[in-house]
Amino acid sequence: MRTWRDGDGTLTVDTDSGTGAGVGAGPGPEAGPGPEAGPGPGAEPGPGAEPGPGAREVPLRIAASYRARTKGLLGRDGIEGAMMLTPCGSVHTFRMRFPIDVAYLDRTFTVLAVTTMKPGRLGLPRLRARHVVEAEAGAMARWGVRPGVRLELRAAPATAPEAL
Q1: What would the pLDDT profile of 84-141 be if each residue is shown by its tens digit?
Q2: Sign of the CA dihedral running 144, 149, 154, 155
């Protein structure tokens, strides 16, 4: 199981595959188990893994600490890209200034549900959800994010502080 840290990253949605699965997700559920089924749950693609030609890469802000998850998108007028809250099973939009799309993800980054929430709402908890991705309303549909799709989320490499 991966430990996430606050920071930036990339969200990739592969829109070329038949199921819309993310890069490295392997074939859909109809394929069954086998060596060609792709990496196991929580596996990170290798350094040479490249998105397919129809893949959509979106800038991602990762909120893994209690403080970052509590703040989330509060106080913002919008977001460029998306924000991932982890661990997270439900969200609210109290004190938010704009409607958002919310995608609930399981441990393998498979989308369980996608919903649009207006400001001042309380979302229902999703029992299997381990991560939540938030974006401006309408963004998930443009990116092809829907239930059953497996997303790829990558944290940006940590940079070492420069020596003075």
Answers
A1: 998 998 999 998 899 999 999 999 999 999 999 999 999 999 999 999 999 999 999 9
A2: positive
Report pLDDT digits (tens) over 56-88: 899 999 998 888 888 888 778 888 899 999 899
Q: How confident is the model at residue 44 (pLDDT cuts 50, 70, 90)?
A: very low
**In the structure encoding, which two tokens stand for residue 91, read together?**
């969200």
Give the global pTM: 0.73
Read off φ and ψ for residue 3, nearest 5 degrees.
Answer: -100, 120
Tell me the C-alpha distance between 20 and 35, whole Å. 20
Structure tokens of 3? 């430990």
CB 104 within 8 A of CB 111: yes
DSSP string of 37-99, one letter each residue: G-S-TTPPPPTT----TTEEEEEEEEE-SHHHHHHTTTT-S--SSEEEESS-S--B-TT-SS-
Measured between alpha carbons, how far is 86 from 17 in angstroms, rounded to an integer? Answer: 27
Residue of 99, 107, 152 lying closest to 128 (CA atoms): 107
- Tell the burial category of 21 from Cβ atoms under 10 Å away from its Cβ (0-12, 13-18, 19+): buried
Taking only Cα atoms into account, the Rg of the chain, rounded to an integer number of angstroms, comes to 16
